[in-house]
């Protein structure tokens, strides 16, 4: 992990409060799928954790972020340089299994690099992504490039299956049993109930981002404390009390 000043190559609006930032940085050579970087937002004390969506040639990483508050709003105005700390966290495992990637909302971005990694080793990649409405859907064309099957669920039924990712999985008889997932808590709870093999990636409010402050702690089934920023954000299905 290190601090690097990256060069912002582009920072563009891709739909409904969501932006895509391409950054040239030395960190690109070290990132594993599912890891995140801590972004420095000028004039804000705490860095903001954002998952690495994709690693591209020419030492470039892609971040896809949603504007939810002042920090992410300021990020939309950044076009020159950006200070990054990372890569942080453990990332998704890349194992010798066909994989089902399940994402919800802004949990979808880290699944893109994960799909690429599984395709690279010749595995079958199924993707199921869920959004509130069709307008919230992101990264669909990109994910199609690296998957064998892709299904969409929207809560209002404006695209794909009406309902949750679990409804889309049932409707389309998606039967892969090794799952990697990132998204909102209710979705992760449903995955913990339905599946036993694979991992989920958690979100937490973070302060230090390096395991020192205990500000992002969750509990495992035996009552032990786990830091989302350092022990996670990726945990085996069933390990963490959600
Ligand atoms: C490991 C990790 C990876 C992440 N990856 C992405 C990503 O790829 N794309 C993306 O858009 N976002 C991602 N996030 C969430 C992102 O870090 C927050 O949205 C961001 O820090 C908010 O900063 P802000 O200053 O705009 O909002 P603030 O002003 O800090 O907060 C605005 C609102 O957002 C809520 N909020 C802030 N941070 C979080 C959080 N971590 N979890 C849940 N709610 C939060 C606050 O409670 C508040 O309601 C990730 C978070 C973690 C922990
Ligand atoms: S944010 Fe400080 S320990 Fe995780």
Bound molecules: flavin-adenine dinucleotide, FE2/S2 (inorganic) cluster
- Structural class label: alpha/beta
Mean pLDDT: 96
* Strand count: 16
Estimated share of beta-strand residues: 35-45%
Shape: globular
Order of helices and strands: EEEEEEHEEHEHEEHEHEEEE
N- and C-termini, Cα separation: 28 Å
Number of H- or I-type helical stretches: 5
User: Numbering strands along the chain, what is their spatial order in the largest sheet?
Assistant: 4-3-7-1-2-6-5
Helix content: 10-25%
The low-confidence parts are none
Largest sheet: 7 strands, antiparallel
Description:
- The protein is of the alpha/beta class and 242 residues long.
- The chain has five helices and 16 strands.
- The strands form three sheets. A seven-stranded antiparallel beta sheet has the order 4-3-7-1-2-6-5. Strands 11-10-9-8-12-13-16 form a seven-stranded mixed beta sheet, sandwiched between helices.
- Strand 5 and strand 6 form a beta hairpin.
- Bound molecules: flavin-adenine dinucleotide and FE2/S2 (inorganic) cluster (FES).
- FE2/S2 (inorganic) cluster (FES) binds next to loops.
Top keywords for this entry?
binds FE2/S2 (inorganic) cluster, 17% helix, seven-stranded mixed sheet, alpha/beta, 36% strand, binds flavin-adenine dinucleotide, globular, seven-stranded antiparallel sheet
């Amino acid at each position: 992990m290190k601090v690097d000043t990256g060069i912002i190559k582009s920072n563009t609006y891709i739909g409904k409060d969501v932006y895509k930032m391409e950054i040239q940085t030395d960190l690109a050579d070290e990132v594993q799928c599912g890891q995140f970087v801590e972004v420095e937002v000028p004039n804000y004390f705490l860095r903001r954790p954002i998952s690495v969506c994709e690693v591209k040639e020419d030492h470039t990483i892609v971040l896809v972020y949603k504007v939810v508050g002042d920090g992410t709003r300021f990020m939309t105005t950044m076009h020159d340089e950006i200070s990054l700390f990372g890569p942080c966290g453990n990332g998704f495992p890349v194992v010798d299994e066909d994989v089902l990637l399940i994402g919800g909302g802004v949990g979808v971005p880290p699944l893109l690099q994960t799909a690429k990694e599984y395709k690279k080793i010749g595995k079958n990649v199924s993707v199921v992504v869920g959004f509130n409405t069709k307008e919230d859907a992101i990264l669909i064309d990109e994910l199609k490039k690296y998957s064998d099957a892709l299904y969409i669920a929207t809560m209002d039924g404006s695209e794909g299956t009406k309902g949750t990712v679990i409804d889309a999985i049932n409707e389309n008889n998606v039967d892969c049993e090794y799952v990697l997932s990132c998204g909102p808590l209710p979705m992760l709870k449903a995955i913990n109930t339905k599946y036993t093999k694979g991992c989920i990636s958690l979100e937490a409010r973070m302060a230090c981002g390096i395991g020192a402050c205990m500000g992002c702690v969750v509990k495992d089934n035996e009552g032990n404390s786990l830091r989302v920023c350092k022990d996670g954000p990726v945990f085996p299905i069933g390990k963490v009390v959600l």
